[in-house]
Write a structure and sequence with these properties.
Length: about 260
Amino acid sequence: MTSSGVGLKFIATPLHTGSTGSRALGVLTLLAVGALLLFALVLSPPEISQGDAVRLFYVHVPSAIVSLYVAFGITLLGSVIYLRKQSVFWDLMAGAAAEVGVVFLGFTLLSGMLWGKPTWGTYWQWDPRQTSTAVSFVLYLGYLAVRKLDMDPTARSRRAAFLGIVSFFNLFIVRFSVQWWRGLHQGTTLNPLDMQMANIMLFTFFLGLLTMTLIFFWLLLHRFRVAWLEHQLAEISLEAAIAERRDEDDPGSSPALAAKGIS
């Protein structure tokens, strides 16, 4: 590819983000999804008080756990490490985890609304847990918006890291909201270890937790690889722009990209 007389050979990039490991993880995830559908919709019986609405429990609670504690926990960890070591890897990992986590949290809110209609008689109540969860959803949407700002990449990553750390503190409100305030949302009754559940229902819950975890890490793996490729492309484009500018200033000079494999 040439531009303004400067020949640029871009580093070869893969045509996809798959690998042997990611394909194996994908197959395992599909098997887990199939097993969860079988147990949640067919083999697991209705719950005494909730009836068939309990079937949403097998995806609602696991998706909440994965988003709030796994995904946003990775975002917190990545943000802290980035601020300490300026690690591009952890910056991109934090962003990828937040992006997938927001999808899971959105699904949590949606499934909770569907569960609330037959249980509470309405899709939405300004219940403390519902409200605090929605606040977390907005906070991490804001985090993702900061990561898209058109500004110096280092400054942008630092601002996002600070927001990733601050946003995590709202998760403590989500966790303890049912103990701190009186609301419609059940507290310990939604703890599978405290519920009067048949063994098959407990098994289905933990199968749902495993399935959601596998889905999350499969998505995280691919989203991180896309982010890494985007970062590499941005670095190459920046180097090409610098070389082109130098050529404009000094037409007689050769491109200064040979040392980096660009000629």
